[in-house]
Each structure stands twice: as structure tokens, then as C-alpha cells.
Amino acid sequence: MTTVEAVLRLGDDALIASQRLAEWTSRAHDLEEDIALSNIALDLLGQARALLTYAGEREGSGRDEDDLAYLRDEREFVNCQLVELPRGDFAVTIARMLFLSAALRLRYEALADGADETLAGIGAKAVKEIAYHLDHAAMWTVRLGDGTDESHERAQSAVDELWPYTFELFEDDEVDRDAWLSIVDPVLAAATLTRPSDEDARFRPTGGRQGVHTEHLGYLLAEMQHLHRSHPGAKW
Amino acid sequence: MDETERVHAVASAVMDPELPVVTIGELGIVREATISDGRAIVTITPTYSGCPAMDVIRADIVSALRREGFGDVEIRTVYAPAWTTDWVSDSGRRKLAAGGIAPPGAAAVGRRPVLPLLPPPAPVCPRCESVAVAEISRFGPTACTSLWRCLDCAEPFEHMKAH
User: Per the CB < 8 Å rule, is A124 touching B80?
Assistant: First the structure.
């Protein structure tokens, strides 16, 4: 995998996760949570902008962050499928944030310690932000999982539903699944949630890194890209 | 004051658009100022990757320098070393507190484990200096602040998170 491919993967993960999370803006169950989810979406968007800008510079074709975000078609996006799935209920959003934030933390830590100066700078900054996201997701996972019967059931079903999609996070990637499990497992345990066993996870969707996506990404991109494509270069 | 120092001073004096009680110099956002072939170059670092104030800050620096006669201005953004609230100056901290925003404590060193879930270090109420405060929301109206309330004077307030 070239540097450009690796940076695009990470940038697309952050961009699509941000777009999905932003769907909660004005929809969360209270004002504080609305602000929290919007803030996290904004952090991810900022990380995506820095990463896509750098990917564009490195590939040397003159594409900037806007070209990469708005003018690529679905098959050119290399995000994992986990981030494009519909936002679901709040428990699904929290489970996804836990799984994704744990993986992003490991990736950004690797960038921060890496040899590429630009990526090290982006990584060092992002690591600090991801710590908040992970903290937020862990707090809610415990609160939902170790909460009422209803919240426990929904949290467990969210974990079961998303678990198969977490395998793609480690496909041909530097991030080590054991390191990821060492973050995620204790949180699930503290939340009295059962981690689906690997043997039971027969369904392991894949393809995102090759541009093969679920049906949901096209709709997300249509909403995200339509303004820029209909009015190229629009400013306000 | 030579021209380079003047560029630095003018850029540093720009007020933060979201915390309009402190300058971007006091926040530690201005990293460097130089003049090269008549062009004033100011290097800034974002507080948070997605901080929406950065575009406004860039525009404000350009207009402040234009007013001071620097027609050719370039703003560069650097990510490394990552901004930390430890760079907020003493005068910045005093102004934040006077403006009702509890200033940050020392930023944590190293990478903290996820568990146990610990409450963040509590600030002191910027209005009555009470230590009896409770967190309302870890994410505030801007990326860099959280929301608290004072249990003594009952006022809600923002706190710039140690970062």
C-alpha cells in the first residue's frame, strides 16, 4: 500500500464518519449530546481535510481536499463499510464511535510516531481529539450497557450488528486487532455487554478498501456532493 | 521595532473570533512571522483540527496586516508541534477568567488509558472562585471549551479544556 492509499483510507474513514455523525445535529436527545456529537463530527471533518489535502499533494495530480471529497464517485472512496452504515439509533451510533475511535486512536498514534513529518503533525493533533471521542463513546457504552433493560438490549444489539464490520478495519493495515481489542474489550466488559466471539461472526463484510460499498454510501455521497456538483465553486 | 516584529505584533493582536476576550497571540496560535521579498508570512497552528474559527482568523490576520500597510500577506498553517493549552499566556488566562471562561489547567502528559472512566479535572468558578462546580457537558459551544455550573453562585460557565 502506498502512502497516498493509506492516507486516503484514513481521510475517507474520517470524512464519511463525520458526515454520518453530523446527521445527529439538531436530532440528539438533549442539547448537550447534540453539541457533543456535532463537535466530534467537526473534529473528524478537520482531520479529513488535513488528510485529503495531503493525499492530494502527494499524488501530485493537483487535486485538493474539495476535489477529493466532492468530485470522486462512490467506487473511488476507500473508507471502510463500518462508517457508511446508516446512523441507526443512538446505541448504534455509540457502538460505532467506540469501535471506530479505538481504531483511529491506534492509527493516529502510529502516524504521530512515524517518519513522515506532515502526517506526524496531523496524527499528534488528532490523537488528542480522538481521546475525547473515545472517552465519550466509552462513557455512553457503559451507561447504556449497564443501564436499563431496554438500553442494555439496544446496546447489545448494536454491538452484535456492527461487530462483523469491524474486521475490515484491520484488513491489510498497520493497526493490530489485538491492540484494538485491548481497548474495546474492557469497555464492553464494564458495560456488561457480551463481545461476539470471532467464531460466531461468520459474516465478515469487506470491499470498502477496494471501492466496493454498501448501498448506503451512494445516498450519503449524493447528499454530501450535490451542492458542489450542481454549483461548482459556489461560495457564500 | 523592525518590520518582522511589527508583522508578529499585528498578527498576535488579532482577537479570537470565538473567545473575543483574548488575542490569538495570547492563545499561542501564532507560531511565526517573517517577511520574504516584501511578503508578510504568518504561520499559525489550529487549536483543533476542525476548529471553524480558523478561516475567520486567517481572514482577520490578512485584514489587520493590510490596515497596517502590508499588502502582500500569506498565512501558513502548521500542525506540528500540536497546539496545547499550555501555550495560553498568563495574560490570556487572566482575561479568559475575567471574561467568564475558566482557564485551562496543565495539559495531561502521555496517553491516558480509556478505563477507568475518570471525571476531568474541575476548574474554579470564574465568577465567585468556588471549587464546588459540576460538569454539565464535556463538549461546549466551541471545540475547546466544556460547560460547567457553579454550585455556590449557581452560574453556568465555560471552561477551556486542558488540551
Answer: yes
